[in-house]
């Protein structure tokens, strides 16, 4: 027998909660407003006491965020976290990273056999500060990655609540790749170094086209397209098509303009 669809499992309240969080994210746009609205919406609609938002250019750098968003019991703990605990965070382990970057969500209970430093993090940092439960949601962003932490003394979620947060996670991750959590900065756009024809090729790569398909669209030989692609990588410093496609997408979202 097939498993029931998520909309057959969730209550109307849970589905409205998912929609409310997604709408809050859209209203936030990006930056600090996005972080605050997301944290408030998750706390309100999923019944979580304390929600945090840590952002970094890469996954390991998330835990060294110098100015994360902290709420509730976590708010006064930034200094001690940064000084003593950020390297021991339960979500910094390779196991947690694999799960979070693959599925987008995990909880403390799902992380089996914590190493001693992370066990100490739970016993000596989380629990004494009223955080008996912990969960995290991973977001790929236009300017890096983020973890949304969820902490409470007791998190009284049932199976449908976990199903709801996983649905929310999938929806958020599909949208967050276009969102910048950091403040806007003026940076060197290496795509500006490309010729108009190279920009055309880069745009088609970002659309997921193969060299053969690009050749057909631009009425070029496949060998010519290969040369364009090699030159694009050389000029921009991007190492592969995925990295280039991400750069093109960020440029379009950031309104940096387009050639041609």
Protein model, in words:
The structure is a single chain. With 260 residues, the chain is of the alpha+beta class. It folds into two domains: 6-176, Beta-Lactamase (2-Layer Sandwich); 190-254, Winged helix-like DNA-binding domain superfamily/Winged helix DNA-binding domain (Arc Repressor Mutant, subunit A), CATH 1.10.10. It contains twelve helices and four strands. The protein has helices spanning 6-9, 12-28, 31-46, 59-62, 78-85, 94-103, 116-126, 159-176, 196-206, 211-218, 222-236, 241-254; strands at 50-56, 105-107, 133-141, 144-152. A hairpin with a 2-residue loop joins strand 3 and strand 4 (144-152). The longest helix is centred in the middle third of the chain and has 18 residues, at 159-176. 32% of the residues are buried. Residues 187-252 form the HTH luxR-type domain. This is HTH luxR-type domain-containing protein.
Strand order of the largest sheet: 1-4-3-2
How many domains make up the coordinates?
2
Order of helices and strands: HHHEHHHEHEEHHHHH
Separate helix tally:
12
CATH superfamily of the largest domain: GAF domain
Please compute the radius of gyration using only Cα atoms. 21 Å
Distance between the termini: 54 Å
Estimated share of beta-strand residues: 5-15%
Q: Which bin fits the share of residues in helices?
A: 40-55%
What are the main properties of this structure?
single chain, 260 residues, alpha+beta, Beta-Lactamase, Arc Repressor Mutant, subunit A, 2 domains, 12 helices, 52% helix, elongated, disordered C terminus
Short description:
Helices cover 52% and strands 11% of the residues.
């Amino acid at each position: 027998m097939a498993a029931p669809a998520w909309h057959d499992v969730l209550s109307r309240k849970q589905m409205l909660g998912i929609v409310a969080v997604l709408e809050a994210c859209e209203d936030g746009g990006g930056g600090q407003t996005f972080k605050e609205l997301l944290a408030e919406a998750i706390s309100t609609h999923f019944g979580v006491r304390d929600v945090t938002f840590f952002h970094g250019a890469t996954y390991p750098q998330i835990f060294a965020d110098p100015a994360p968003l902290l709420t509730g019991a976590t708010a006064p703990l930034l200094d001690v976290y940064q000084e003593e605990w950020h390297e021991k965070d339960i979500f910094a382990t390779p196991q947690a990273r694999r799960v979070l970057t693959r599925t987008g969500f995990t909880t403390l209970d799902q992380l089996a056999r914590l190493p001693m430093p992370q066990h100490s993090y739970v016993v000596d940092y989380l629990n004494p500060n009223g955080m008996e439960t912990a969960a995290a949601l991973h977001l790929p962003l236009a300017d890096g990655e983020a973890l949304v932490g969820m902490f409470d003394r007791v998190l009284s979620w049932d199976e449908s609540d976990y199903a709801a947060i996983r649905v929310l996670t999938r929806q958020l991750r599909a949208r967050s790749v276009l969102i910048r959590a950091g403040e806007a900065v003026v940076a060197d756009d290496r795509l500006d170094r490309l010729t108009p024809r190279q920009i055309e090729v880069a745009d088609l790569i970002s659309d997921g086209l193969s060299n053969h398909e690009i050749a057909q669209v631009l009425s070029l030989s496949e060998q010519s397209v290969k040369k364009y692609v090699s030159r694009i990588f050389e000029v921009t410093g991007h190492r592969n098509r995925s990295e280039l496609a991400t750069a093109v997408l960020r440029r379009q979202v950031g309104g940096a303009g387009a050639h041609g």
